[in-house]
Predict the structure.
Amino acid sequence: MDPSGGITVEVRVELKPGVADAEALAIEKSLTLLGVNGLRGVRTVRVYRLTFGSSDPDEALRQARLAVDRLLANPVIHQVEIRAVGSPSARTSRAV
Amino acid sequence: MDPSGGITVEVRVELKPGVADAEALAIEKSLTLLGVNGLRGVRTVRVYRLTFGSSDPDEALRQARLAVDRLLANPVIHQVEIRAVGSPSARTSRAV
């Protein structure tokens, strides 16, 4: 729970293995040119922290899954992890 | 360590509290319009997973900090967390 009694859910969206991550490739190239040594690969991940007014973690996770289905991820290319954070009984749900 | 002996470092970049997160505001508005109930706030976070060939976690963390300083974050607006993942002695370094 956050200080005001709400629940924060972290939605972690990343590309499935095998899906080209163009941004990550550009970053990898740049970092090598900028003098970062030993880099062998880069992947990018988007995390959305959704705060809900509800104090029911199950309801917050249900709404977060709705957010993923309707906007935050594309099941064809993304794998998603949904996790209640800062709530007493943080639990994880993973969809690949 | 990853299966081939390298080390993966996760760099988590988010806006400092008080810095407007325009993308998050747009997402919050859209999600509410799309029927997600009870949403009180959204924040976005960028995570970069950097894999290094080195098997020395300290060296990997040092290179990751270099990557942050040179490209991945702007200290004026971002707070950064750097964490070795999947290595036996994962350790965290936080810069606010």
In short: Chain A touches chain B through 35 residues (CB under 8 Å).
